[in-house]
# Entry
Amino acid sequence: MLALCGLAGFSFSLIGGFIMLVLTTAVVISYAFVDREDPFTSRASIEAVNFEESQLEFLMRQMAALGRTIRQSVRALIRNKAGFLGFIGILFFVGISVFGPLFIEYDGDTHVERLQPGARTLFQKPSSEFILGLDWKGRDIFSHMVHGGQNLIITSIEAGLIATLVAVVVGALAAMIGGIVDQILSAIANFILTIPQFPLLLVLASILSFSNRFYLALLFAGLSWPALMRAVRAQVLSLRERDYVQAAVALDLGLPHIIIREVLPNLMSYIVVNMIFSIRSAMYYIVGLVFLGLVPLEEPDWGVMIYV
# Structure
């Protein structure tokens, strides 16, 4: 199972493969992990419990917590019929984009020989040979659907991950440091939020050439992080008043320790949900730019299929 999920991720990119391996490993660890130093789960007396943990033990505990969160989310999806149907739909298209190219060859050449007698165009309706029919060049539409999702999904995920990472780091630093740093970072975020994103993309697309998908993801991330940054900042401002955070500050454990170990674990569900929204927005922007012809048309691509 671990190898299969890793293969599915690596078929997209190195980043996708790494993410899938981390998530799958977290689920596996959540089944086997037992915190022997936890006084509520250990059979040892309270005096015999060692509350100090190494970096490896902390990493294992966080991975187990992530795995339990994933399992709880899956159970919640199964109980929610509408959400489960939506999840199945997403899984269907992602599965086609991941495993479909392994079995279905891309049909990218023009096929004049497929012109039907008496027909004026190469368009054909679905048939037993071509389940989704043929396009205006006589190419198999199903093969384009199978091969056309990887670039869109990869670029959207990259944009969502970069935007989420920047928003979490900047928002947490602004809330924990405060003062002039908080004012400057908040002012930058507010300024970017005042700029209409899609009209700005249209202007930039008419000036620049978005030939590199990663640069396009960076541009989307640069426009998407301020909204999540403000939300993370507000959450961290609330969390830093909690007793356990105040205790960590009093013990002078350092800002990285406080943010990574005390604050972020309580924001993970909120961060993941907003990362999904960022990925969705990036998909809309990409398809919109391709549909308007402002991004170089590279086939196969779902946006190009809509455009033509």
Summary: The chain has 13 helices and no strands. The chain has two domains: 2-103, 150-307. Residues 2-103 form one domain. The first helix runs from residue 2 to 10.
